[in-house]
Every structure is written in C-alpha cells, then in structure tokens.
Fold this sequence. Notes:
Blueprint: E1 12-16, E2 19-23, E3 30-32, H1 34-41, H2 47-51, E4 56-65, E5 72-80, E6 83-90, E7 96-98, H3 102-122, H4 129-138, E8 142-143, H5 153-172, H6 176-187, H7 191-194, H8 202-205, H9 213-234, H10 236-257, H11 269-282, E9 287-292, E10 295-300, H12 301-317, H13 325-353
Antiparallel strand pairs: 1-2, 2-3, 3-7, 4-5, 5-6, 6-7, 8-9, 9-10
Amino acid sequence: MRRCPRCTYPLMLFVHEGEELDHCRRCGGNFIDPGEAARLFGGHAHPDAWRESFAARSIGPTELKCPKDRSPMEAFEVEFEKEKVEVDLCAKCAGLWLDGREGFALQRIVSNATSHAEARESGAIKPGVASYVFQIFTGFPIEVWNPVKRTPVVVYTLLAMLVAIFMAQVTLMPNEEAWIAQYGGFFFLVPSEFIRGEHLWTVITCAFFHAGFMHLAGNAYFLWIFGDNVEDELGPVRFITLYVISMISGSLLHFAFNANSDIPMLGASGAIAGVMGAYLVLFPRVKLYVMIVVFRLRLGVYWYLGFWIVYQLVMFASGGEGVAWLAHAGGFFAGAICAWIFKGATDHETKVAV
Ligand SMILES: [Zn+2]
Ligand SMILES: [Zn+2]
C-alpha cells in the first residue's frame, strides 16, 4: 500500500478526468506519474519539459520519499512571472508529488511560460523602444530569446573583476602614459619582451586590463549576453577552463604573428571571443536582433558570429592596426573547440543521470 509522503496516511486511488491519482484524503496531496502529468496538465507539464526549461530550478533534496518506490525526492521551484510553485520529483520514477492545489498552479505556470517563450521566439512579442535606441547608439546585438536556468556566477564575478580593475587603473594612474611606461610591461603582453622569456604571465594578466571605458564596455556587454548561456550550459568549472584556454590561445596567436612588436596588448577580447565561439557551437539556432543602420533584423546567431569572425580575419589580412584581430580569432576558435569537446561530456553526463 502506498502511503502519503507528507503525513504517512494511506493513499487512495482516485480517478480525475480519466487518470488515476494516488490521493491523500488527510492533506489533499496527490502522487502522479510523469505521463499522467502531461495528460492532465498539458504536454509541457511533463517533468522532462519543465526540468529542461528556464521556468524550473532545483532547490535540492527534500525529506519526502516517493510513495511508489521509496526513493528520495527532489524539490523543484517552477516559476513564471509572479507565480511560483514548489513540486517534488522522484529521481527514480519521475513521479510527482503535488500538495493540495499545486497541480493547478503547475498547469497555469507551465502553460503561461511556454506561450510567452513561443511568442518571443516567433517575434510576436518584440523588444521595446529603449532597446532599439540602445542598439542604434551601440550597434550591439541583443538575443531574441535565450533565458538561463541558473545564475551565471562566474560571468558576474568576471564582470565585477574587470570593472574593479578598470576603476583602480583610472583612479591610481592619473598619468596613464607614465604608468604604462613604468609598469605596463609587467601586466600587458609585450611580444618583444615575451619572446625573450620575460613576463610570461602577461598572456593571462593582459586580459584583465582595458585601454578605455568603451573598450571595457564593449567587452563586458558581449561577455554578459553570450557568457550567461555558455556558463549555464557547461557549468562553472568548464566555463572557467574554456575562458582561460581562449584567453591564452588569443594571446599566443597574437604573439606568434607580432613577435617583434613593442606595442603592448591588453583587453579581455580574446577570452570573450572564446565565449562567442562557444555560444555558436552550443546555441546555433538562437536568433539575435541585429542593427543594420536603422533597421533591426532578426538573424540567426551563425550569421552574426560568422560575419564577425570573417571580419576579424579580413582586417588582420589587410593590416588593420590598433586592434589585436588575431587574439580575437585565436580565442574564438579555441572557445569553439572547447565547447565542442565539453558538449560531448555534458551530453554523456545527462544520459548517465537519466
Ligand atoms: Zn497526506
Ligand atoms: Zn518514484
């Protein structure tokens, strides 16, 4: 006999809209199989659908035991706009425990969240005027729809570090040129020093400094919009690994083609180009709003990033100065390769977990 995981009262078989539920008459809770959830509340109420969606996040194991197989259950918070509900999911049989009226709340939330996502994706809901003005002035792209399931802790930490270092730079060195002449080689990558084996750590440290507010703002923006999803998909440890490998690859490719240069290189662009390469591998079907003069177009991310990488290579080939084009290219390809390798590993993990 199945017992209520909340109050241990025997569960009663109950038929609701042709589906059998295990119902607790004492606390009003219900146990339902995954297939039944989908039939009762709509396809998106199937745990596989909401567990993979932005609307649900795990809040950890609970004290409840599955009434069917006594396995420990995991609590999920399913949330959209102002409404949220906490449901318990069995890790073994994917059965759901819903207290009281949680079933109706779950049904409303998943159907609202799903129709909102579909409206954004199809272009029925458009971004507002403020974002249009922002795009006109900056030329930056915005994502049509690619929400994250978890807070991107590493991305936020990196952004805070880049801003803090820039603030320190601005306040501590009023005379920038004198400061660069004295200490620059210690932090920035100077190829002619690197080739003599001096300041080898600058392949990393150079990526934490920026040469001006716009340089920082551009890099920070791209890290923010692309990095959150890449971190969400790969997890923090793989994301940091990808970021550092892209950073070093960018620095080294720049060095390899400018080995005699005295010009210091700085900026997180190489590492962030790696995040962009990874985004292309992980989310090839996502669309961006891209500004062409005054026209806002919805383009596949492969058009935008494909044009971006070709532009970097063409500018390098034509000898464009002042920008480390090859640091961008080196970072981009390193990030794409890392993402491709890590993606295989995360797919495998998912299969093992299921
Ligand atoms: Zn009960
Ligand atoms: Zn179970």
